[in-house]
């Protein structure tokens, strides 16, 4: 093994020393036929292996080009060919001294997402703002933290240094604005008054005042010397996402969830003009240095440049299919840099609107992107917990080559098929078995299951695998009646509902039968037939994103809640608006229909829950108790209780009628996005941004179980009709099903190319409805028989106990594990030859579902003991994982 690795390493060195010439496309370069949905290895030559290139393709003889990837090196790239037909294809590779090749510095150390970063214009420092409730000030030279600002009790979203760099202002989810000494980190002033999240803050260039914007719909101007409120700007009709001063301090620009940008005269605070054009929420707005232009970035997937004096739209820069969090100007005002939700930073030319540079900056959403004061670098920050400083090229000199002749793409219909094991094989307990399949692309994700009782029951090998093969450590169950089943997750979808013009935030069933409703950022709710998949009614009238809806018990009506702050009641058959209920001062996040049909409840980012008379639309009462925005509201099935979930990390239970607060459920360590009752009302499940779903006893408030999502938060969780299982929807596009009693993950599938905002069992428990911001809702069958989506091995195969030759094989014994089976602890004695897989090796204990139960760094250790008392009886793996590979060993726990 060592010799193979050694020779491969030297082979790489020798390859990198080839003579360089002119950049040239090597493959595909003319006459090739590529199949759609399959991988093609693009190759180029004439540059060294570390030079990065951009790759584009054309299907119309070069008349237009579609990007494949930017900033890739290594002289090859595996491309998943689009499933189209064309005989007019060309490939183009080009080099540039692009920003993606010149990362200067990485700033890493926060304990959670970084929301934004900013330069100290006085020089030498940056600041980063995080969901760990802190702001850090860093040295650009050393990359080290100089000061950590601690005191906020919520996520810190934005900060800005004073012009002389002596102070810094921060704004937080805790609703406060704080002013700090930027050198010592001492808190100088705390400014309170906003009733919701402070989204942005800005320092007037003369240093005498700061401005703050909030989800409460206002902008507040504060005296920087005393912390006193000078004035409050009202004019936006929804939350304000951004505030910034012009460089001369004479103007203020604000951007809002109401789709507009507003310009205000500093001092008199007169509203000078409103910039209208965005078709979605506007996330940011910034002035050019000379104050003549404004750039705004929005959830309509565009950045827009405006003339500040006239309000004229000067240019629109499209991001195709993802929204932008931030945009800002270069110091000379000739270019704009944007940060988007897909992790990219892009640079645009202001005059022509041309995209002049693009690079994948982060494994997360880029919350801010700024030019340095000298214009020679760009600072980006993202929710991958990293900020990065990128060097910019001073020239655009580039080399490029296009394939010499046309080549062809043909669409590739295929059928999923199990290749191995497929009948007759004998697999050994504890040994590695290579599972193989064909008929799909190497990038298509499949779920793999096995049965040891001729297909009567199935256990998950892995919920997600790709590459047409998977290395499986054979479990300890000996059987001659084994089958393997491989399923394409996406084919389990029995119905797709598509037609909205923007993100779908949620969906719900009509419990009376036959219909679902979907709620979208296109300001509409659609009601669909489950039988045909067609839209029956579109509810039009909201002036903001629609976040939630719920049918009445008899299906005759439906209630919706929107970013426009209103609750609306509709005839679910005709789409006629019956009532409009106003009173909330911020986004309506969720709505719920009392099962008896006489009232509806709404939750809001304004921190309240409102109860409305469904017959008249009148406000019955307002529930106050949460200390931050309320994300969710739901009635118990008998209508006697109400549950709410909040950004304040808590879930609350209220007695319907008296509206007495019965109990507060405390345990989440992040905002809680949803809470739902089981059908019998005995349990509550909550889903949060602490990456967990939690099940609670509704009567006592006792925590019954916690279901961990490892590294991504959950938007929604709900019970199966019998209350025995929970389905969750998460930010990474997955739907997962958990067993309530044991807390075990029993199913998991990649449901959407976007964040799953809701996940519901159907009333009969036979399917699951998911909705996501990929603009699609899907209905998934929970039946294990779905021939079009899976294939099962043709014949039975066998699992046998390991022989002594396998046990004693040196290649299998880089690690010894004992006692095996274990009861209270497991001892791992490692032969140092394990370092063939890397120098930084971690040891993990993993269950059959791939869940990490324990983890420890080896760091050259040879003997480690780990407690197993917390693990239930069953089969587990010890996994040694390094930067070059991993080794897996089975063990069991028996008590």
Number of helices: 2
What is the count of β-strands? 81
CATH classification, class level of the domain at 502-722 and 750-784: Mainly Beta
- According to CATH, the fold-level topology of the domain at 502-722 and 750-784 is Methylamine Dehydrogenase, Chain H
Q: Which radius of gyration do the C-alpha atoms yield? A: 29 Å
Largest sheet, in brief, is: 6 strands, mixed
Tell me the fraction of residues in β-strands, as a range. over 45%
- Distance separating the two termini: 38 Å
Secondary-structure content class = mainly beta
What is the mean pLDDT? 84
What name goes with the CATH superfamily of the domain at 502-722 and 750-784? YVTN repeat-like/Quinoprotein amine dehydrogenase
Q: Indicate the percent of residues in helices.
A: under 10%
- Basic shape: globular
Q: Give unreliable regions as ranges.
A: 1-20, 97-101, 394-398, 783-789, 803-813
Architecture (CATH level 2) name of the domain at 502-722 and 750-784: 7 Propeller
Summary?
Helix content is 2%, strand content 53%.
Characterise the protein shown here.
This protein is mainly β and 895 residues long. Among the domains are: 90 residues, Immunoglobulin-like; 96 residues, Sandwich (Immunoglobulin-like); 256 residues, Methylamine Dehydrogenase, Chain H (7 Propeller); 87 residues, Immunoglobulin-like. The strands form 20 sheets. Strands 2, 4, 5, 7, 36 and 37 form a six-stranded mixed sheet that branches. The longest helix has 14 residues. The radius of gyration is 29 Å and the shape is globular. The N terminus is likely disordered.
């Amino acid at each position: 093994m060592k010799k193979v690795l050694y020779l491969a390493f030297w082979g790489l060195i020798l390859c990198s020393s080839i003579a360089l010439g002119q950049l040239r496309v090597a493959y595909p370069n003319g006459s090739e036929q590529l199949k759609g949905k399959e991988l093609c290895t693009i190759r180029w030559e004439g540059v060294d292996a570390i030079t990065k290139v951009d790759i584009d393709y054309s299907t119309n003889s070069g008349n237009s080009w579609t990007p494949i990837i930017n900033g890739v090196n290594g002289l090859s790239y595996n491309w998943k060919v689009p499933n189209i037909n064309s005989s007019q294809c060309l490939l183009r590779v080009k080099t540039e001294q692009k920003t993606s090749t010149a990362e200067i510095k990485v700033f890493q150390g926060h304990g959670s997402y970084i929301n934004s970063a900013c330069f100290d214009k006085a020089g030498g420092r940056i600041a980063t703002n995080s969901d760990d409730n802190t702001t850090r000030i860093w040295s650009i030279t050393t990359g080290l933290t100089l000061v950590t600002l601690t005191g906020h009790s919520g996520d810190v979203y934005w900060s800005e240094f004073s012009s002389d760099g002596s102070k810094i202002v921060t704004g937080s989810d805790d609703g406060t604005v704080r002013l700090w000494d930027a050198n010592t980190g001492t808190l100088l002033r705390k400014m309170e008054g906003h009733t919701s999240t402070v989204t942005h803050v800005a320092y007037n260039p003369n240093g005498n005042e700061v401005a703050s914007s909030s989800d409460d719909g206002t902008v507040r101007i504060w005296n920087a010397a005393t912390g006193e409120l000078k004035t409050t700007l009202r004019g936006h009709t929804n939350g304000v996402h951004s505030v910034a001063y012009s460089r001369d301090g004479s103007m203020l620009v604000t951007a809002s969830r109401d789709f507009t940008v507003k310009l205000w005269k500093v001092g008199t605070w007169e509203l000078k003009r409103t910039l209208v054009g965005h078709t979605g929420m506007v996330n940011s707005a910034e002035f050019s240095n000379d104050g003549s232009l404004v750039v705004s970035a929005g959830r309509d997937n565009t950045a827009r440049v405006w003339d500040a004096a006239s309000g004229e739209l000067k240019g629109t820069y499209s991001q195709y299919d993802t929204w932008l969090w931030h945009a800002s100007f270069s110091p000379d005002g000739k270019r704009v840099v944007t940060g988007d939700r897909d992790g990219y930073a892009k640079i645009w030319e202001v005059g022509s609107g041309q995209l002049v540079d693009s690079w994948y900056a982060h494994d997360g959403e880029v919350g801010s992107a700024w030019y340095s004061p000298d214009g020679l670098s760009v600072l980006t920050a993202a929710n991958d917990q990293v900020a990065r400083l990128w060097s910019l090229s001073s020239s655009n000199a580039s080399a490029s080559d296009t394939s010499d002749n046309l080549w062809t793409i043909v669409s590739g219909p295929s059928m999923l098929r199990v290749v191995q094991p497929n009948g007759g094989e004998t697999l050994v307990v504890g040994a590695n078995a290579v599972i193989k399949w064909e008929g799909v692309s190497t990038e298509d994700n499949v779920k793999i299951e096995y049965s040891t009782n001729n297909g009567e029951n199935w256990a998950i090998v892995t919920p997600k695998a790709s590459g047409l093969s998977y290395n499986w450590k054979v479990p300890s169950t000996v059987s001659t009646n084994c089958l393997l089943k491989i399923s394409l997750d996406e084919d389990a979808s029995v119905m797709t509902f598509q037609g909205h013009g923007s993100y779908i935030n949620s969906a719900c069933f009509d419990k009376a039968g036959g219909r679902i409703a979907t709620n979208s950022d296109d300001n509409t709710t659609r009601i669909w037939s489950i039988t045909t998949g067609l839209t029956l009614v579109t509810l039009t009238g909201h002036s903001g994103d629609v976040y939630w809806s719920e049918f009445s018990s008899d299906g005759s009506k439906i209630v919706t809640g929107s970013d426009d702050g209103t609750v609306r009641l509709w005839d679910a058959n005709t789409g006629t608006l019956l009532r409009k209920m106003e009173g909330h001062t911020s986004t309506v996040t969720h709505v719920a229909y009392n099962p008896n049909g006489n009232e509806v409840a709404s939750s809001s980012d304004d921190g309240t829950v409102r109860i409305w008379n469904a017959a008249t639309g009148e406000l019955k009462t307002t529930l106050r108790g949460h200390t931050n925005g309320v994300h969710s509201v739901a009635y118990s099935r008998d209508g006697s209780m109400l549950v709410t979930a909040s950004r304040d990390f808590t879930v609350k239970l209220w007695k319907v009628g008296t509206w007495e607060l019965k109990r507060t459920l405390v345990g989440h360590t992040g905002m809680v996005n949803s809470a739902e009752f089981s059908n019998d009302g005995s349990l509550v499940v909550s889903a949060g941004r602490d990456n967990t779903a939690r099940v609670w006893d509704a009567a006592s408030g006792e925590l019954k179980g916690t279901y961990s999502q490892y590294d991504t938060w959950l938007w929604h969780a709900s019970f199966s009709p019998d209350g025995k299982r929970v389905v969750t929807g998460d930010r990474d596009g997955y739907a997962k099903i958990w067993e309530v009693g044991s807390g075990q993950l029993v199913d998991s599938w990649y449901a959407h190319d976007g964040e799953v905002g809701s996940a519901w069992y159907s009333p009969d428990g036979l399917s699951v409805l998911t909705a996501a911001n990929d603009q699609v809702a899907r209905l998934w069958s929970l039946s294990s028989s779905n021939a079009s989506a899976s294939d099962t091995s043709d014949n039975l195969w066998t699992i046998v106990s390991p022989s002594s030759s396998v046990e004693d094989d040196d290649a299998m014994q880089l690690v010894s594990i004992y006692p095996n089976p274990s009861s209270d602890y497991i001892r791992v004695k490692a032969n140092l030859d394990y370092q063939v897989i890397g120098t930084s090796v971690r040891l993990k204990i993993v269950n059959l579902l791939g869940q990490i139960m324990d983890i420890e760094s080896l760091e050259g250790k040879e003997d480690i003991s780990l407690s197993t008392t917390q693990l239930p009886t069953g089969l587990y793996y010890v996994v040694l994982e390094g930067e070059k590979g991993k080794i897996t060993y089975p063990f069991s726990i028996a008590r």
